[in-house]
Amino acid sequence: MTEQGGGDAGYMDGADLALAGDPVRGLFGKEVRISPDGRKATAFITWKGYSVADVPQRSALLKAEGVKAARTPFDADCHPYGWVDDRTVLCGPRLGDTKDPKRKNSFWTLDASRLDGTADLPKGAMGDPIIPATDRKNTVRAISQNGKQMIFASLQGTRLEFFISAIAPGATPKKITAGGADKALSVGDVLEWR
What is the pTM of this model? Predict the structure, then answer.
């Protein structure tokens, strides 16, 4: 049996293929991140913004009318970097900056199981900042398989450094100092966390 899917070529501009579930099916969309259990995905859906979608039973194009999805409320300010567990998404500022000074260039979690598709952020769904606010530009590079740690890149001016941190509010990041790690992380992607 061969799995097939199709979609609007105009929408596919800038979209990528992600694989989900067992048996595996393809999801085509923008910035797709699959939950560990393969049942949910975050994606940027045109006309909806960042959303949490149920993974369809067949290959699909993640678009506004094509999949059951709940838009991430604007108050969550969530650019999804990936999943910490089957219900929790790791977020950073949606537009690269945030109005909340405690969250400036930080990260936080969002309990996606509590989203109901409305524009309102459910009370308690958004976690506290994980790392201290900073002027550095920080982006997540990898989340550990158990969802308890992350590696992030930290840019200050032209100086790029990499840190490892627990995924817990108030964590203290530690600079990665292993020989060659900075070079490897700056030119590649983390494929496996050991």
Answer: 0.89
Q: How many CB atoms sit inside 10 A of residue 96's CB?
A: 10
State how far the Cα of 99 lies from the Cα of 188, in Å rounded to an integer: 31
Q: How far apart, in whole angstroms, are the C-alpha atoms of residue 109 and residue 38?
A: 19
Q: What is the pLDDT of residues 61-97, one digit of tens each?
A: 887 777 788 888 888 889 999 999 999 999 999 876 7
| Alpha-carbon gap, residue 135 to 113, rounded angstroms | 32
According to DSSP, the residues that pair with 152 across neighbouring strands are 140, 163
Q: How far apart are the first and last CA of the chain?
A: 34
Task: Return the amino acid letter for 31.
Answer: E
Q: What are phi and psi of 26, to 5 degrees?
A: -95, 140
Pairing of strands 60-61, 25-34: parallel
| HEC string for the chain | CCCCCCCCCCCCCCCEEEEECCCCEEEEEEEEEECCCCCEEEEEECCCEEEEEECCCCCEECCCCCCCEEECCHHHCEEEEEECCCCEEEEEECCCCCCCHHHCCCCEEEEHHHCCCCCCCCCCCECCCCCCCCCCEEEEEEECCCCCEEEEEEEECCEEEEEEEECCCCCCCEECCCCCHHHHHHHCCCCCCC
